[in-house]
Amino acid sequence: MRNVRKKEIVDQIAAKLQLRALVVKDVVQCFLDEVINELAQGNRLEFREFGIFEPRQCAARLAHNPKTLERVQVPARRTVKFKLGRVMREQLQKPQATR
After folding, report:
1. Predicted structure pTM score
2. Is 98's pLDDT higher than 70?
3. Nearest Cα residue to 84 out of 39, 45, 52, 43
4. CATH of 44-99 among 4.10.520.10, 3.90.79.10, 1.10.340.30, 3.40.390.10
């Protein structure tokens, strides 16, 4: 497993579509910004075959500090749940190609 950065994705898309990487980078960044904005507004995002992003509210809870075993109040927070779409689930179930 390796880390894939946004630049690598942008370069791959630019090569496939024969577009300038700068244009693709702007489109990808604009897309990511819109995803963040929609989730921040509490909207559910559904990309057929890919997956569903759904904002969730995690309730406040009482936890333990593992070092001191002291009880700590963890405040409520917002997070995002992602549910795999059919195509992604199928691709992830295929055996990995060896290098």
Report:
1. 0.80
2. no
3. 52
4. 4.10.520.10
